Amino acid sequence: MITFRLEPREHTPLWLNALLPLAAVLATLIICSGLIKLAGASVISAYVIMFKSALFTKFDFAETLVKATPLVLTGLAVVVAFRAKFWNIGAEGQLLAGAMAAAYLGALKGVPAWSLIPLMIVGGAVAGAIWAAIPAILKTRYKVDDVVTTLLLNFVIDYGMMALLNGPWKDPLSGYPDSPDILPAAQFPILLKHTRLHLGVLVAAVATFIIWFLIRRTTLGFSITAVGENPKASSFAGMSVSKIIFLAAAISGALAGLAGVGEVGGIQFQVMQGISPGYGYTGIIIAMLARLNPLGVIPAAFFFAVVITGAEAMSRATGVPVFLADVIQGTALVTMLVALMFNQYRVKFKKVRHE
Amino acid sequence: MSEILSQIFQIGFFAALIRIATPLIFGTIGEMYAERAGVLNLGIEGMMMLTAMAGFSTTYFTHNLWLGVLAAMATGVLAGLLMGLLTVSLGLSQHVSGIGITLLCSGLSFFFYRLIFGQPASLPKIKPFHTVAIPVLSKIPIIGPIVFNQFALVYIALIFVPVSAWLLYSTPWGLNLRTVGENPKAAYSAGVSVSAYRYQGLIIAGALSGLAGAFLAMAQYNAYTFGVVSGRGWVCIALIVFGQWDPYKSAAGAFLFAFIDALQLRLQASGVIHVPYQVFLMMPFVFTIVGMALVSRNARVPAALLKPFRKEER
User: Fold this and answer.
1) Which residue of B has its CA nearest to A137?
2) What is the C-alpha to C-alpha distance for residues B217 and A204, in angstroms, rounded to an integer?
3) Hey, is A236 helix, strand or coil?
4) Please, which residues 267-296 of chain A have a Cβ atom closer than 8 Å to chain B?
5) How many domains does chain A have?
6) Cβ–Cβ of A144/B100 closer than 8 Å?
7) Residue B190 burial class via C-beta count within 10 angstroms: exposed 0-12, middle 13-18, buried 19 and up
């Protein structure tokens, strides 16, 4: 019989750092090919259609970037929070908070037209930050588990939004539960003609740089990481652990809120049910694949944008349920976790003889 | 006002309350075994979704309700074993592993449901569980129709609470399980296999999440929908904190949640308060958060919860 044991690694070779997410993605695609076979389709053609349809034409590529935009922002949101070991599973709800604020501010009459977009961006970020501040305060003041509160608050704001859409925001003409359209001046400018590539893409890119700078180059960034790694030592070193957790949560919520702003300002121009098909949860997977590195969020978000947009074309062409995209996401998180273990430990196999 | 109150608090209200509490009791008590052994199982939400799908589909094709329940439990056990592989054998982050299991299981439940049933014009349905009146006891005024005219799974859930308390506090197995969750080093030194007990905790958690999922899709409703669980798994995690990792207190928490849920359903139906019904749906979640805020400061968390145990790192 062969058994294995895990030995801690002294340090991680550089090549392993880059290779792990790739290995995890590859393993995921191999595992999920079993489901494609089960659905009676050809594995190769299903994956080829999935990736080709998301990347091949200028329009498709732009659509994939549009899809990647909220994912970059929720991914960054989770990176900041998880670095401080603030388990923010609530990016989904914070995104909705940002979307609602943007829909409200974007429809404001009587303010200068040029101020609408900046108002939406700031307002959406603040709304997301406030929604994330609630579980942060509950955690630091009342020691309430952040995982549970952030998760439950997703449901609270989702029902809250639906109540708004079925109440004050209900369309008076059609009776549909979707909010009034934002003003034309509040719609995000399109960056590339004949596509939906909007200002939000730029917002996500700038946010990535800012968060990278924050984490790598500022005292606050170092403190966030330090608090996450060793709260006791940080507190001995004179940091206010509660304050830093609070700030990390607020920054995290603001980023998720921005994801909602982009969806309202650039795509939907209103709020309605299903405005986020789980972007907040996908953000967790992206952050883990990026190994909590802000720059790594971009390729990871792009990959999942490809999977999500490509899955629809793949489903239409092959009949494999579109929910393969969800299974790929869940599997990727699990395989990445396993891959990360190889980062910290080396596996030693040894033979055990039975007496 | 008194008219509204008498309209709400009828026998039907309390019978509904017990039904609403049942999946929460299964989920909470199951999760308690895992957490008492030191593993936070955030996979519970997805496990309930997947087991509901597995149980429903099995019954749909075999027309056998109990076979569906068994299939749901088996599915839950498999998911629990996967959680064990990640968190116990490999010692990975329990938070992220649990979220991974939930995302994976919910994705699988959507995928297989679509694969099996396609996109039919009308929702596939089964003949769900009937209530079983217990002879004599169901004839007791008021209490009889509320407690003793329920689904068989309700009785099983109610019996599970004292049985779990007995297992946990009065048997050597329970003592070992609790020691593994409080002080795994001590347990290991005493010759108790930490990983075996943690796996057992997760297997029970998986099987009971299966009972919860089966109850939702096969007793409370007669169909599987993507929103069949809608946060109940997360509520179970909250109820354990609220119930201080104790079977009786956790069950009491489940009844409290069910009370608010049943109340909001009645208020919705009564039409006395004119607000969109989603405001009512929000209530139980808000109350859960407030409830956790009230008790968490004094919470006595199992000391080794979230901490992986590696023999070689003693």
Assistant:
1) B293
2) 41
3) helix
4) 281, 284-285, 288
5) 1
6) no
7) exposed
Whether residue A39 lies within 8 A of chain B, CB to CB, comes out as yes
B273 CB within 8 Å of a chain A CB: no
Residue from A350, A157, A352, A173 nearest A271 by CA = A157
Q: Angle A14-38/A43-55 helices, nearest 10 degrees?
A: 120
Note whether A152 contacts B: Cβ–Cβ < 8 A.
yes
Query: What is the residue range of A184's domain?
Result: 2-351
The DSSP annotation for B199-242 comes to: HHHHHHHHHHHHHHHHHIIIII-SS--TTSSTTHHHHHHHHHHH
Query: Which residues does chain B have within 8 Å of residue A5's beta carbon, measured at their own beta carbons?
Result: 312
Question: What ipTM is given for this predicted complex?
Answer: 0.92
- Chains A–B, number of C-beta pairs less than 8 Å apart: 149
Whether A76 contacts A209, CB under 8 Å:
no
Shortest distance between the Cα of B216 and any Cα of chain A, in A, equals 19
Domain positions in chain B are 23-228+300-308
Q: What are phi and psi of B151, to 5 degrees?
A: -70, 150
Tokens of A10: 């002294």
Per residue of chain B (314 residues), give pLDDT as tens.
666 677 677 888 999 999 999 999 999 999 999 999 999 999 999 999 999 999 999 999 999 999 999 999 999 999 999 999 999 999 999 999 999 999 999 999 999 999 999 998 899 999 999 999 988 888 888 888 888 989 999 999 999 999 999 999 999 999 999 999 999 999 999 999 999 999 999 999 999 999 999 999 999 999 999 999 989 999 999 999 989 999 999 999 999 999 999 988 888 887 777 888 899 899 899 999 999 888 887 777 888 898 888 775 54
Separation in Å, CA of B77 to nearest CA in chain A:
18
Q: Look up the CATH number of the domain holding residue A261.
A: 1.10.3470
Partner A contacted by B312 (CB < 8 A): yes
Cα dihedral A290, A296, A298, A299 in deg (nearest 10): -80
Within 42-101 of A, beta carbons closer than 8 Å to B belong to: 87, 89
- A243 near B CB under 8 A: no
- Per-residue model confidence as pLDDT tens digits over A185-236: 999 999 998 899 999 999 999 999 999 999 999 999 999 999 999 888 888 8
Q: How far apart are CA B175 and CA B182, in angstroms?
A: 10
CB < 8 Å to B91, chain A: 6, 341
Residue type at B119 in one-letter notation: Q
Closest chain B residue to the Cα of A147, Cα to Cα: B95
Note whether A136 and A241 are within 8 A (CB): no
A7 phi and psi, to 5 degrees?
Answer: -115, 135
Amino acid at A18: A
A323 close contact with B: CB closer than 8 A: yes
Q: Which two tokens stand for residue A283?
A: 């953000």
